[in-house]
Amino acid sequence: xxxxxxxxxxxxxxxxxxxxxxxxxxxxxxxxxxxxxxxxxxxxxxxxxxxxxxxxxxxxxxxxxxxxxxxxxxxxxxxxxxxxxxxxxxxxxxxxxxxxxxxxxxxxxxxxxxxxxxxxxxxxxxxxxxxxxxxxxxxxxxxxxxxxxxxxxxxxxxxxxxxxxxxxxxxxxxxxxxxxxxxxxxxxxxxxxxxxxxxxxxxxxxxxxxxxxxxxxxxxxxxxxxxxxxxxxxxxxxxxxxxxxxxxxxxxxxxxxxxxxxxxxxxxxxxxxxxxxx
Length: 278
Hints:
Rossmann fold, 7-stranded parallel β-sheet, 3-stranded antiparallel β-sheet, 278 residues
């Protein structure tokens, strides 16, 4: 990296990084690419001889699971050899998952937009890390011979899943951060604030303070890493993750160290984050 990554121009995003960057027109286009990629990566893994295909997947961006379910139903495409590991889930104050019926629940979203929408005979298996048994995720990955693809979004401070940057005064070196396993985490103020804006009209009190998340160890251990960014407020973090240093302060920057990492971003996300007074 040379200079301030926030100064990187739209046309040079990703240049010299080894991370492939695909720019699409808008959020709808990104959602379609995401849905198509879920199916194409599954087919490729099966063609390569994988009996059980394993993906780590996010809930955000949203929309791709509706498209996937509709296509599988229309074309009678079975996903019975696919397991989807949901990246994370909010926790209630007592430490258990929030109820799946809660509109904030990622488990509930996957049920409504994928499992309830697809013919059950075509459906994949969907699991989420459990706060009382987080070690089960690593055991499943080992039993399946590894994760084929880890898909994900990126938070405003660079988190992937809910792997947050260290808090001020918390010291983690680059390798130690990359080796963090599936676990319970406290959510940062930045994450709770932006999530409140996107799902609760700014009511931060309605965003849980903790979650269970798949770890950086499992995400970075996937054979392929595919990240999707479609929010205008990601203009700054996309530059840091691509052109800044690899650092726990920007967890998504670890994509630079992954042997097969790629980003799909909307045109809005390529725009300069430099302030402009209206």
